[in-house]
């Protein structure tokens, strides 16, 4: 057991030094800001099941009653199907959902969606973690 | 020999030793828990046929191996950043020549805005093998092996006579020639263009790229994938990457037409035009 724990620790140490191999179609960090997390609740107005990324839109009403339409980017349809999404059943226009993600750098009503919480409390990922596809925290080469 | 060099040499040896121990520990654990032997094809070779997930070390169906966690995620906290340790890719810092390392760093600092994948181009090798989010299907026959990659909807045909085509020209996926060494499939790949990345952000290469891939199905669920990357025009020495490719029974490779609604290049242009700073420095 001690040997296994040591092995696991060693692996963790080694992995921590390595290139982030995570890949996505495009860079998270160029378009979105990991320092600007956002959680919004609203009503789904449209879902685009498209490659290389899917999108959905949400009408979000603020305290003063103003409605803004937000756009969220996420996984392509194939990845969504393997993450538990059913195209015609899981989320439809008119559904009220809460989305956690990160805002676009241009401060528009665009965000990268990570997790969607449905009315019944069920949660599903709609997109990958922050930092996917942008090189992560460590470059592939040693920094001089 | 200077003291600094000596220290560096000792550190390098310790690193190397730790690296191999960890690699073996990880694989030993996987092997110890293996339930079934690798199936054999009619010609007696290990049969690699099946649908697989690269860069994973978890057994089970796609759902069992990825639920709760999400590919690349920690699962404990959705707001947590991408977690390299959740993927099983064991490598070392890439041994680029100094001028080339500077170019890799430039891409990293630009957060990969220059990623060829953002243009929906084929991913090249070995990168497409370690895209954990998308499955890979291997179809094996006695004379050739076909690999279907869902990501970018691309394929490779690998003849098993060990011979390259006699009219190789530079391409995204190169020209593959395979042969068996015991129970290991060895694939020699040449004929690459210089338009793809090897693994992570900015890992470019030249047309001199030469890969030696080794696929060893150690049990029913696991292929050990070891690839040696040789490119004397940009690397100081061959660079080796180890990962595991796990069987995903019940998963199918689906269509992926990247050009359908690719909004990213236009958005990158907008960011640059508006002077929005997204670089690391």
Task: Describe the structure concisely for a colleague.
The complex is a heterodimer of chains A (about 140) and B (about 280). Chain A has about 140 residues and is of the alpha+beta class.
How does this model look, in words?
The complex is a heterodimer of chains A (144) and B (281). Helix content of chain A is 17%, strand content 37%. Chain A is of the alpha+beta class and 144 residues long. Chain A has one domain: Nucleic acid-binding proteins (OB fold (Dihydrolipoamide Acetyltransferase, E2P)), CATH 2.40.50. A 5-stranded mixed beta barrel of chain A has the order 1-2-3-5-4. The longest helix of chain A has 15 residues. Chain A is globular and about 55 Å long. Chain A starts with a helix and ends in a 19-residue tail after the last strand. About 12% of the residues of chain A have low confidence. With 281 residues, chain B is α+β, with helices and mostly antiparallel strands. Chain B has 4 helices and 10 strands. Chain B has one domain. Chain B is globular. In chain B, a hairpin with a 2-residue loop joins β8 and β9. In chain B, strands 1, 2, 3, 4, 5, 6, 7, 8, 9 and 10 form a 10-stranded antiparallel β-sheet that branches. Helices cover 20% and strands 23% of the residues of chain B. Classes of the chains: A alpha+beta (144), B alpha+beta (281). The interface between A and B is large, with 65 and 81 residues.
Task: Break the fold down into its secondary structure elements and pairings.
The complex is a heterodimer of chains A (144) and B (281).
Chain A: H1 2-16, H2 28-31, E1 32-48, E2 54-61, E3 67-74, H3 77-82, E4 96-104, E5 110-117, E6 123-125
Parallel strand pairs in A: 3-5
Antiparallel strand pairs in A: 1-2, 1-4, 2-3, 4-5, 5-6
Chain B: H1 3-32, E1 50-53, H2 62-66, E2 89-90, H3 98-109, E3 136-140, E4 144-149, E5 154-159, E6 175-181, E7 184-190, E8 210-219, E9 222-230, E10 239-247, H4 264-273
Antiparallel strand pairs in B: 1-3, 1-10, 2-10, 3-4, 4-5, 6-7, 7-8, 8-9, 9-10
